Amino acid sequence: MSPAPYLLGAVAGYLADAALADPRRGHPVALFGSAAGRLERRLWRDHRGAGTAFTALSVGAVAAGAALADHALRRRPAARAALAAAAAWTVLGGTSLTREARTIGRSLEAGDLAAARGRLPHLCGRDPSALDEQQIARAVVESVAENTADAVVNALTWGALAGTPGLLAFRAVNTLDAMVGHRSARHLRFGWASARLDDVAGWPGARLTALLTVAAAEHPRAARRVWRRDGSSHPSPNAGQAESAFAGGLGVRLGGTLQYGERVEHRPVLGAELRPVAVADIERACRLSRRVGVLALAVTTAAHALGRTALGRATRGRTGPVGAPERRTLAAGTAVLTAGATRKQGSVT
Predict the structure, then answer these.
(1) Pairing mode of beta strands 263-270, 252-260
(2) Residue range 239-284, pLDDT digits in tens
(3) What is the 3-state secondary structure of 168-181?
(4) Which member of 49, 126, 166, 334 has the greatest number of CB atoms within 10 A?
C-alpha cells in the first residue's frame, strides 16, 4: 500500500489536535475505557493470567478492528487518509496537555494556590493537598515531560511502525496501564500484564522523546548530559528518559519525593546541580513540548514513508507467492510460539 494516505492522515490529525484539542464529549478513548472497565469487572481475578487475558482481549480487539477497517479501505486512499486522521486526532493529546498545564500555571501566577491544587488532578495522580507553589510547578513540568512522550511521541512512533492500527493499539495499551497498571491491592497481579506491555510499547518513543528534546531544547548540551546521566535512574524504564532530558533542556531540577494519596515515593533527583522549578518554567515546558511534538511528526512520518517504500520494493522483488516450504516453516514457527505462550501462561501466578 502507498504510504501517502497515512502520511496525510497523520498530519491532518496532528493539526486537528493542535486546533481543537480533545473532544469534550464522547471521546473514543473514554468509550474504550468504559468498555474495558466492563470487561475488567467480568474477568477480574487476583491472578496474572486473568489480567493477561483482559489485556490481550482489550488491545487485540482495537488492533484487529483498526487493521480490518484499514484493509477494507485499501483501494480508497481518501477514506484511508480520513481514517488515519480520525485515529491521530483521537490518540494525540498534546494540546489538551499544554492547556491543562497552562491553566495551572495561570492560577499560580495569580497567587491562587487553591485553584492550582484543585486543577492538578486533571494532569497527574499526585495528592495536591499539601503541595506548595514550587512543588505544584515541579509536578506540572514533570507531567508535561512524561506525557509529551505518552500522548504525542509514542503514539506517532507506533503510527510510523504500524499505521492506523499502531496508533490506536498504543492508545489502548496506554489507557489500560492508567486503569489497572498501578500497584494497588486490586491490580497488583491483575494489572501486571497491562503495566509490562505499556513499558514495552513505550520504550522506543521514550528514547525518541529524549533525543528530540535534546534537539529542541534551549540548552541542548545540558539536556543531553542530564539525560545520559540520570535517565535510567528513574523507577520507570521510560518516564525518566523524557523527564531527565526536559530537566537539562530547561535548566531545572526534577524528581525527588512524591505523594500519591497515602503512598509516598522517594525518586532520584534529575539534574541535581540545576535550580528548582519556578512557575515561569511551566510555560517554557509547554513550548518545549510543542517543539518536540512537531519534530516527532516530521521524523515519524518520514520514517513511515521510507519504511513503506522499502517494503514495497522488497515485495515487488519476490518471485512469487509463498510456497510449500515457506508455509511449513511458518506453520512450525507458529506452533513453537503457541506452545511457548501456553507454557508461559501456565507458569503465571
Answers:
(1) antiparallel
(2) 999 999 999 999 999 988 775 555 666 788 999 999 999 999 999 9
(3) HHHHHHHHHHHHHC
(4) 166
Q: What is the pLDDT of residues 8-43, one digit of tens each?
A: 999 999 999 999 988 777 788 999 999 999 999 999
DSSP run (H or E) holding 253: strand 252-260
Q: Under 8 Å CB-to-CB from 109, ≥6 apart: which residues? A: 279
Quickly list DSSP for 155-169: HHHHHHHHHHHHHHH
pTM to 2 decimal places: 0.86
Distance (Å, whole) CA 125 – CA 177: 13
Looking from the CA of 275 toward its CB, the CA atoms found within 13 Å total: 9
Residue type, 98: T
Could you give the C-alpha distances from 288 to 17, 22, 324, in angstroms and in order? 17, 20, 54
> In terms of DSSP H, where are the helices of 44-153?
48-72, 77-91, 94-109, 113-119, 133-148
| Strand arrangement, sheet containing 252-260 | 263-270, 252-260, 275-276
Cβ contact 261:234 at 8 Å: no
Cell reading at 299: 521524523
Residues 6+ apart with CB under 8 A from 250: 141, 217, 218, 219, 281, 284, 285, 288
173 CB-near residues (< 8 Å, 6+ apart): 59, 194, 197, 198, 201
Kindly state the cell numbers that stand for 1.
Answer: 500500500
Q: In the structure grid, which three cell numbers stand for residue 70, read together?
A: 484499514
Residue written as grid cell 472497565: 37
